[in-house]
Write a structure and sequence with these properties.
Blueprint (H helix, E strand, L loop, with lengths): L3 H6 L8 E6 L8 H21 L5 E5 L2 E5 L3 H8 L7 E8 L3 H14 L4 E8 L7 H15 L4 E2 L6 E8 L2 E5 L3 E2 L11 E5 L3 H12 L3 E6 L15 E4 L4 H11 L4 E2 L4 H7 L8 E2 L7 H12 L2
Parallel strand pairs: 5-6, 5-7, 10-11, 10-13, 11-12, 13-14
Antiparallel strand pairs: 1-3, 1-4, 2-3, 4-8, 4-9, 7-8
Helix pairs in contact: 4-5, 6-9
Length: 300
């Protein structure tokens, strides 16, 4: 739930039929209790970023989806592409559950997106008087009736319209934007990242994607800055050594250390015995995979 301060100062109260539908993936595999906890964590993270950027918005949810109602869609899209736990999202037009409302909304949507061929894919996540196939057929017929010359192509359409009938309304969209996926930040415990190179930054990002809250140590805060585009990372200006990392882990109640080293490199600097487990997320990555990851994380 959003705070009272958020609702009074930032949340738009007027109705808006433009909605951003946010999907998660891995969270949906959890038990009901864990899923709700992770949904709450994801909403808190999104809400925090909205407030930090002073974006007017309101959030709602049902099972499997979060909805963001706002007129600042482009700014919110930038947030969602950098929020762990978000699998994908779509800019939608929302209408009611009545079939006539759906027909009208789909026709208007297609008019705004010029094309020569189209297809409609409908699905229901709630009870409705019509099946998914019937909804697609009825909406498609209405489109052809109001836009003469427009042809149906179910194999390779120029425009595919998705119609999702859910308990709170019907959502119409034509594209899905990708989020980073993973688990909501901070839901899987704390770790300390030893940041001495870009490889260490990438290793820290991979653990953030798995839901870990990262505390970083190092001498170059420029290597930590890219991580803060995804979630807040506490940084301490210390020599990036195992001993210093262990000290910070005890201070922050972290349970593991993170490094971008490979196994052979780590053995050269690892004390015997090490007080905490050391995770090496980049182990097994091919050079091309690391370069691809670097472009995502570092924004290059």
């Amino acid at each position: 739930m959003l705070s009272t301060v958020w609702r009074k100062r930032y949340a738009p109260q007027q109705e808006n039929n433009m909605v951003i539908l946010v999907r998660y993936a891995e969270i949906g595999l959890k038990s009901d209790f864990v899923r709700k906890e992770m949904e709450n964590a994801l909403i808190r993270e999104i809400t925090k970023k909205l407030i930090e950027r002073r974006i007017e918005a309101r959030t709602e949810r049902d099972r499997g989806h979060i909805y963001i109602i706002s007129e600042q869609e482009n700014e919110i899209a930038q947030i969602l592409t950098h929020t762990f736990g978000v699998a994908s999202f779509s800019h939608c037009v929302k209408c009611g559950l009545d079939i006539d409302e759906i027909k009208t909304a789909v026709v208007e949507y297609v008019k705004e997106h010029r094309c020569s061929t189209f297809a409609i894919r409908a699905r229901r996540a709630s009870q409705h008087a019509h099946t998914s196939m019937e909804i697609a057929k009825i909406a498609g017929s209405a489109v052809q009736e109001h836009i003469p010359g427009l042809k149906v192509d179910l194999t390779n359409p120029e425009l595919t319209i998705y119609v999702e009938v859910r308990p709170g309304g019907t959502y119409i969209y034509h594209e899905k934007m990708s989020g980073p996926g993973g688990l909501p930040y901070g839901t899987q415990g704390r770790v300390v990242a030893i940041i001495a190179s870009e490889r260490d930054t990438l290793a820290a990002w991979l653990m953030m994607k798995r839901g870990c809250r990262v505390f970083a140590i190092g001498k170059d805060d420029a290597l930590v800055k890219p991580l803060n585009a995804w979630a807040h990372v506490n940084f301490e200006n210390l020599e990036p050594t195992i001993d210093n990392a262990v000290k910070i882990a005890r201070k922050r109640d972290a349970r593991a250390l993170i490094s971008g080293m490979c196994g052979e490199e780590l053995l050269e600097v690892l004390p015997e015995p090490c007080a905490l487990p050391v995770f090496l997320p980049l182990s097994g990555f091919e050079p091309q995979q690391i370069e691809t990851l670097r472009k995502v994380v570092m924004g290059v």
